[in-house]
């Protein structure tokens, strides 16, 4: 499990680890997984990416080369999942993306045969919410976009803007900002949002 087990996002790492441990325990209680005609138990190892790209690469390579893992399972942060996918391709192990939603992770540039993304993407979320506001709710028309300044946040904003053009062309984006990761003081943005007349903050 490649996740942040230290640093500002450590709670997300613990949540991921507990979930995977529960599934592994359930599988192991039933004898394990069938591999080459034999049942084998699942072992789960914690790999702390510390929410840093250089650490993510280092820990993934250690997991593959020293701990001999067959799967890299991660992670919060599309920028970090991109690193995991690259390591998986280099060493021919499977990378399973459970929490990083950027469509860019599976585009023609970044896709590789070892990377799997069995979750929704930013485009689906953004376009889906735009559809909801434009085709179902049909009430608010002024939107302020406030997202994190990295792959995921930018992807979420792009998906929403595409959806508004398609499903709600009369909507208006009255402001758009991207804040640094793990920000704790949103006061400057709140002031701008209030002044913009926004009815919805996305």
Tell me the fraction of residues in β-strands, as a range. Answer: 15-25%
Provide a count of the helices: 6
Cα distance spanning the termini: 30 Å
What is the average of the pLDDT values?
Answer: 95
Structural class: alpha/beta
Major sheet details: 3 strands, parallel
What Rg is obtained from the alpha carbons, in whole angstroms? 20 Å
- Order of strands, main sheet, comes to 5-6-7
Secondary-structure topology with pairs:
Blueprint: E1 2-3, H1 10-29, E2 33-35, E3 38-40, E4 47-48, H2 53-65, E5 71-74, H3 78-91, E6 94-97, E7 115-116, H4 122-137, E8 142-148, H5 151-167, E9 172-179, H6 187-196, E10 200-201
Parallel strand pairs: 1-4, 5-6, 6-7, 8-9, 8-10
Antiparallel strand pairs: 2-3
General description of the model:
The model has no long low-confidence stretch (mean pLDDT 95). This protein has 6 helices and 10 strands; from the N terminus they run E-H-E-E-E-H-E-H-E-E-H-E-H-E-H-E. Strand 5 (71-74), helix 3 and strand 6 (94-97) form a beta-alpha-beta unit. The longest helix has 20 residues, at 10-29. It has helices spanning 10-29, 53-65, 78-91, 122-137, 151-167, 187-196, and strands at 2-3, 33-35, 38-40, 47-48, 71-74, 94-97, 115-116, 142-148, 172-179, 200-201. Helix 4 runs parallel beside helix 5 (151-167). The strands form 4 sheets. A 3-stranded parallel beta sheet has the order 5-6-7, covered by helices on one side. The chain has a 3-stranded parallel beta sheet with strand order 9-8-10, with helices on both faces. Strands 1-4 form a two-stranded parallel ribbon. It is α/β, with parallel strands linked by helices and 202 residues long. The radius of gyration is 20 Å and the shape is elongated.
